[in-house]
Design goal:
single chain, three-stranded mixed β-sheet, alpha+beta, about 325 residues
Length: about 325
């Protein structure tokens, strides 16, 4: 049993690990097993040749397919805001939102892609980041996937979203500031320190290669949360050598397969690519990493972010990171 507070160095706040609560009585709802979907859905607006809400038809694509979101959160044509009163401020919701379909297979999952297909997806992330930052001039690119009904995904077709904005999203900005403060107070690179700490303990490591490390962090906020961190000082995907990019892709693929093997109920998750904004000096310690936040804490059991998390901002992790890493490693071994 683990019952203690653990410091989250990137978010600079405490996480409470309460593994004794993982087996508490539960009379709430459960997530059912998802039925296997067909490989092609003629009514799906993400399938090849499908008509989207805008009336535009998708290409008859056979691999990755990217298009501008028909209902964007940020857009260059967003209207000018109304003036705000008093201390309040407003600004135009400028930016660009794109959708990336991983595969034409409507019933597939990112974890089910072949090694080559998976590498192509990550290279597409890189290329989109490069185009939106360098060519389109946006300051920041944030890539994320909402997977599963419990996360609120609007379409089951395997896809992710790419947001480009003239400002930096709050969590990434917070991480950048924490990394800078760690350099000032400890005289060290925070990412290097985390990697050394995980290697020194060893229990939470899921995948390690010459170029990257995948682990359930000591300070995990969710039971099966996982970081995939490069071992080199790469701030953004376009700056990574191809071998590092491929190593990150294969580590993420391995972790997703571990998640798939845990229970009959497919794991729902939020996947996000955290990378530095364009204007961050290259000698800054921040580095690009992939964060996987699974939203099931057990077979059919959703991890609800309720009062203390949503209202108070204090995360309670129902599972010991060491125990959850061991479960994932065992699931990965069974799949081989």
């Amino acid at each position: 049993m683990t019952w203690e507070n653990r410091w989250h160095p990137l978010l600079e706040r405490w996480v409470t690990v309460t593994s004794h609560r993982g087996s508490r009585p539960w009379l709430g709802g459960r997530v059912g097993e998802a039925s296997v979907s067909q490989h092609y859905d003629p009514g799906c607006y993400l399938c090849p040749g499908g008509a989207r809400i805008s009336g535009i038809k998708n290409d008859d694509y056979t691999d990755c397919f990217v298009f501008d979101n028909d209902h964007p959160a940020f857009n260059s044509t967003a209207p000018e805001p109304m003036p705000a009163a008093g201390i309040y401020q407003s600004a135009r919701a400028d930016g660009l939102c794109r959708v990336l379909c991983y595969t034409p297979d409507h019933g597939g999952r990112l974890s089910g892609l072949s090694k080559g297909q998976f590498q192509d997806v990550v290279r597409c992330w890189r290329d989109q980041t490069d185009q939106l930052m360098r060519d389109a001039g946006y300051e920041h690119v944030f890539i994320f996937e909402n997977n599963g009904e419990v996360v609120g995904v609007s379409n089951p077709h395997p896809h992710c979203q790419i947001y480009a904005t003239p400002f930096v999203f709050h969590t990434v900005q917070q991480e950048i500031q924490a990394v800078g403060r760690f350099r000032q107070t400890d005289g060290d690179n925070l990412f290097e320190a985390m990697i050394r700490s995980e290697q020194a303990d060893g229990r939470r490591i899921l995948v390690e290669t010459e170029d990257c490390l995948a682990f359930v962090p000591y300070f995990a906020q969710l039971p099966y949360e996982t970081f995939i961190v490069p071992k080199g000082p790469w701030q953004r995907l376009p700056l990574m050598p191809e071998r590092v990019l491929d190593a990150m892709a294969m580590a993420l693929r391995a972790v997703l397969k571990m998640q798939d093997q845990l229970w009959p109920t497919p794991q729902s998750y939020i996947l996000s690519v955290h990378q530095a904004p364009k204007s961050l000096p290259l000698d800054h310690d921040y580095r690009c990493y992939i964060r996987l936040q699974p939203m099931l804490r057990g077979p059919g059991l959703q991890k609800y972010l309720a009062g203390v998390e949503t209202g108070g901002g204090q995360f309670l992790n129902d599972g010991s990171p060491e125990e959850k890493a061991a479960e994932l490693s065992a699931a990965g071994a069974q799949a081989q």
